[in-house]
Amino acid sequence: MSTAFDLTDASAEFLAAPLRLTIDLGALADNWRDMARRSGKARTAAVVKADAYGLGIEDVGQTLYRAGARDFFVAVPSEGATLRPYAPEARIFVLSGIWPGMEEMFFENDLVPVIASEEQLTFWMSILAERGDYPCALQVDTGFNRLGLPLDDALALADDVSRPASFSPVLVLSHLACGDDPSSPMNRLQLESFRRVSTAFEGIDSSLSASAGTFLGPEYHFDLTRPGIALYGGEAVNGMKNPMRPVATAEARVLQVRDARVDEAVGYGAVSRLTRDSRLAIASVGYADGYLRSLSGRGVPLRDTGIAGGYGFIAGHRIPVIGRITMDLTIFDVTDLPRNAIAAGDYVELFGNNLPVDDVARAAGTIGYELLTGLGLRHERHYVEAL
Ligand SMILES: *Cc1c(COP(=O)(O)O)cnc(C)c1O
Fold first, then answer.
1. Cα(210) to centroid of ligand 1, in Å?
2. Is 383 in the active site?
3. Is residue 17 situated within a structural domain?
4. Quick one: which H or E segment has residue 135?
5. Phi, psi at residue 156, to the nearest 5°?
6. What is the residue range of 354's domain?
7. Fewest beta carbons less than 10 Å away: which of 176, 224, 252, 328?
8. Are residues 93 and 148 in the same domain?
């Protein structure tokens, strides 16, 4: 498979860009519908924090809204403000909660804070005393030790008859630590704790699972699932064949193809010595674009662990990175390609339809989430419209 999407309506800027990112909005909408089907009776939210995992919160938000999503999660309020015009009737939850000075941003954009600590709860109660009824969500910690009220405090709050009537959470949520590992005993422990929370807050919607937890089965769905990475085509569960459609394809222009001789050195530190006469393709992408230095062929600490280096895809072939990745440029070894297969000006795929983002991430010693959210600012984006 080569470029499988339609570039006929791509802009001139995109077609000539040194770095291109194509986002398949049809695949995105399909992935949301797929997760909605897997969520059974539960509603399905869309997590669009970090600029929709690097793919653009405006276009992604609008596409998911049109597909039917009415619950969105962002990390910080400014993301919610950006999303609001694209998801007019949706509930937008802000996972980092609310702090003094942010109230107007929440009220003006109709954002729902996810109260995640004692301090935030106290502050929220003081706001309600002034302003009256306004929705919020409550995050409860069930074993992650990241954000959330401690379990016992949450259960006590549920039973507290003296709490103000204006305090009206619309959702209680918690987050799984090991949802990506179906065999982990943590999942069931957290499930049991969260059942107590859900029962204590009877009549209020509850939500436990992100992408990975949604695959653990109906017990984990409660009233609302919160997929993020699966919508963007990433792997949610370790060791499971990824059922999602790829959404993002990143490509870099080949600026030069050059011949080099056996025994010559390649790149910074001269850490790669050629063992044969070689052809090298110099591509317009580097670590400033989120093409992580740990993808280098040689000369970075990760290579000493035995994990192989990164590779790109061009003209039907996987081509290895050679030498150290630099800020703006990466060198690929194209010696094994037929002599006329590629030329300067062609594009090498960094990940996407032909190279799963998670395979590339593994070569970098990381996860697809980090590769997507770290894409940098130099990619020219092209959105393939959902039909
Ligand atoms: C990021 C996040 C999600 C989405 O997680 P994925 O693994 O990308 O599906 C859901 N819930 C919370 C609380 C999160 O922080």
1. 5
2. no
3. no
4. strand 134-141
5. -65, -40
6. 248-384
7. 328
8. yes
